[in-house]
Amino acid sequence: MYWGRELTEDGKFSEAKAGRAIGSRGIGSVHDLYPSSAEVSNQIQRYAKEKTRLGIPVLIPEETLHGYVGKGSTTFPQSIAIASSWNRALTESIGRAIVGKRVRMGCTWVLDRILNLAREPGGTD
């Protein structure tokens, strides 16, 4: 797993930096990339598939707990606040907005909320 800054310079993919960091060994994933466009992600994928020994595509995980975290993105309330609205349509529209943004940026994997369980302290199971 490599940091996005190890493969980019000024927000753009740098083949020279990728060559120094990865070489032909391959790469599993790139985190904290937060690309400004899918082109950056696509260039990383091309490098991984064409310039590494096994040609395996890269996973690009990003945080989406409050929305896609890249520049120019919308920040949403934490999941517990959204859930407390009891508004399913709102929750779904927020989810769709997050998915749309991350897909447009070329993000292939997200780190997000999964399930919030609340139990009363001292209660029985």
Explain how this protein is built.
The protein has four helices and six strands, in the order βββαβαβααβ. The N and C termini lie far apart (39 Å). The model has no long low-confidence stretch (mean pLDDT 86). The protein has 125 residues and is α/β, with parallel strands linked by helices. It has one domain (2-111). A two-stranded parallel ribbon has the order 1-4.
The figure for the number of domains is 1
Distance between the termini: 39 Å
Strand-residue proportion: 5-15%
Q: What Rg do the Cα atoms give?
A: 18 Å
Give the overall shape, derived from the CA principal axes: elongated
The major β-sheet equals: 2 strands, parallel
Number of strands: 6
Low-confidence stretches: none
H/I helix tally: 4
The main sheet orders its strands as 1-4
**Residue-averaged pLDDT:** 86
Order of helices and strands: EEEHEHEHHE
Proportion in helices = 25-40%
Structural class: alpha/beta
Labels describing this entry:
4 helices; two-stranded antiparallel sheet; 125 residues
Give a short overview.
This protein is α/β, with parallel strands linked by helices and 125 residues long. It is built from four helices and six strands; from the N terminus they run βββαβαβααβ. It starts with a strand and ends in a 14-residue tail after the last strand.
